[in-house]
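Is this the right way to post structure tokens for a design question? Let me know if I should format differently. Anyway, here goes:
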């Protein structure tokens, strides 16, 4: 499966107007002209984010006449968080929140494990997040089609909404005092995972319900985020299966 690349001012605008799920939009810096102005107005109207880049970046994405605009449509339809939360499952819910996970392979690996552990959804922001592209689909082993992928404008708003539904938000941080094995993971939970470099944004840590960590040898600083997420998700399963 290949990522659907669209280029050119009018094709990109038509894709947006037709309701296609747009994953990323790149626009040439200082792009001028009536059509460029129309595109920017449309992006503002649809509240779609875009990134301005040098023309060399666009030329690397495609050798065709891109007219200063390249977009990628997502291979999946993103879910709405409120709709997913309102769906009754008859068992405790598990969500995964991703803050600053920009590597598609890590993203895909997390999705794959989330599907394997029957999680209810993956929540990630529009900005500073890995694209849902061919690498993501491949690494997830097709998992992107088997779990709600929930793209939100702000993770902070998503956390507040989860908490309003009675879901405890647990932030995975090496600075936490409580181990995952000493934490009750049987009720509804949302696991907040940050990047290996920067960790979780401080503003998100501050509004989380609890901070948890994995036991770690002093021989290594951290685990790969997809590995850490997998360990925690399976501890959720272990506790819920325990009689």
């Amino acid at each position: 499966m290949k990522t659907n690349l669209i280029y050119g001012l009018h094709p990109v605008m038509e894709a947006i107007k037709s309701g296609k799920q747009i994953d990323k939009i790149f626009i040439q810096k200082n792009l001028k002209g009536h059509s460029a102005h129309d595109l920017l107005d449309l992006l503002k109207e649809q509240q779609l984010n875009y990134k301005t880049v040098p023309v060399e970046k666009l030329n690397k994405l495609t050798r065709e006449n891109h007219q200063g605009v390249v977009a990628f449509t997502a291979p999946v339809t993103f879910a709405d968080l409120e709709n997913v939360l309102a769906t009754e499952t008859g068992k405790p819910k598990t969500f995964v929140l991703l803050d600053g996970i920009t590597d598609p392979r890590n993203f895909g690996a997390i999705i794959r494990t989330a599907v394997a552990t029957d999680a209810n959804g993956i929540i990630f922001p529009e900005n500073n997040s890995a694209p849902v592209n061919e690498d993501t689909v491949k690494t997830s082993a097709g998992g992107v089609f088997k779990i709600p992928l929930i793209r939100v404008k702000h993770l902070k708003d998503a956390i507040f909404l989860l908490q309003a539904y009675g879901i405890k938000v647990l932030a995975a941080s090496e600075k936490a005092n409580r181990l995952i094995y000493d934490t009750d993971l049987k009720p509804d939970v949302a696991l907040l995972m940050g990047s290996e470099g920067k960790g979780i944004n401080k503003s998100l840590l501050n509004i989380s319900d609890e901070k948890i960590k994995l036991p770690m040898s002093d021989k290594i600083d951290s685990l790969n985020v997809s590995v850490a997420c997998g360990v925690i998700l399976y501890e959720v399963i272990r506790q819920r299966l325990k009689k």
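Format looks fine. Someone answered above. Worth noting: The chain has two domains: 4-73, 81-241. The CA atoms of residues 113 and 230 lie 6 Å apart.
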